[in-house]
Amino acid sequence: PGYPWAQHLPADVAGGVTLGCILMAQSLAHASLCGVALIHGPYSCMLPPVVYALFGTCIHSSVGTGGLVSLLVGVRLAEYGDLAHRTRAAAVLTLEVGLALALMGALQLGWLVRFLSRPALSGFMTASALMIMGSQLPPMLGLPSGAGLGPRALARAHWPTVALSGVAYAWLVCAQQFKSRPGLAFLSHFKELLLLIAAGAFCSVWDVGVAVVGQVPEGLPEFSLPVRDAADLQLARELLPGALLIALVVFLSSWAGAKKFALKDGYKIGSQNEMLALGLANVAGAFQGAVPTQIGLSRMGIAYGMGVKS
């Protein structure tokens, strides 16, 4: 009721469109890290953000797939060799992660975050960023995911991919300088979106061997029960220990980012609300075959930089 439409709507709409486009590309990459069918990345970013918006307290949150959580999910699901089996197991895992978080929120266990100091949260965010960066270095060089970076591996680098990665990195760094220049600020605000459009156009026109996503299924996901039979119950029992660990990482990584930007912008967030919101978001996503979702650290920075207020 008190939303200042004229003041906040332009930045909120621009931020929403930009983050949605970025999340589309990110979620495909994160689905690959999870080892599931690629389309389940975008599926994971449809219902969870809506549910979080109803219960969450951080206005800069962008709920969707995340690099650190996707890495952990991929490790946990690696023992299931078949793609369809891993995709099915991911939905069961997401349901368990959501239920664990929702239960912790309902039991008001958010007070545990009081024992987390600011240096600890900052260290967790830095370590998460380094792990994600390390996982993305091989694809940036045109090498398979998980490949090493020794001299032999570097000798097999795909140089067109290296050149495209370098240009993309240089653009993201340089575009920051346009923020304070009249008439060019939009280049800074939409730098990620412009990069996605330019890179996609380049790869569609010039076939230089850069790996692309390729064809993905069309249409919206169907609602289905993540656990339907005795085999799914057995799968849930196998996945439960890993689900509890991933639930903890989902909350810690999300809370670290949410707390940082809440302090920056001068508003308060509630740990119980965040636990419950993230839990319900994951439970809802599980019915659409989602992988575990969190608040994206990098996307929060984009939302804050663009002046998002809702």
Protein architecture, described:
The protein has helices at 5-34, 40-43, 47-55, 67-77, 83-106, 118-140, 151-155, 159-175, 185-189, 191-205, 230-265, 271-286, 297-305; strands at 63-64, 294-295. By secondary structure, the chain is mostly helical. The chain has a two-stranded antiparallel sheet with strand order 1-2. Helix 11 (230-265) packs parallel to helix 13. The longest helix is centred in the last third of the chain and has 36 residues, at 230-265.
Q: Which terms summarize this structure?
A:
310 residues; mainly alpha; globular
Question: Outline of this structure?
Answer:
The chain has 310 residues and is mainly α. Helix content is 66%, strand content 1%.
SSE string, helix = H, strand = E?
Answer: HHHEHHHHHHHHHEH
What's the end-to-end separation, in Å? 13 Å
Q: What structural category do the secondary elements indicate?
A: mainly alpha
Detail the poorly predicted runs: none
DSSP helical segment count? 13
- The percent range for helix content is 55-70%
Q: Work out the number of β strands.
A: 2
Q: Percent of residues in beta strands?
A: under 5%
> What radius of gyration results from the CA coordinates?
20 Å
List the strand order in the largest sheet: 1-2
Q: How many strands, which pairing sense, and closed or not: the largest β-sheet?
A: 2 strands, antiparallel
Q: Give the overall silhouette.
A: globular
Mean residue pLDDT:
87
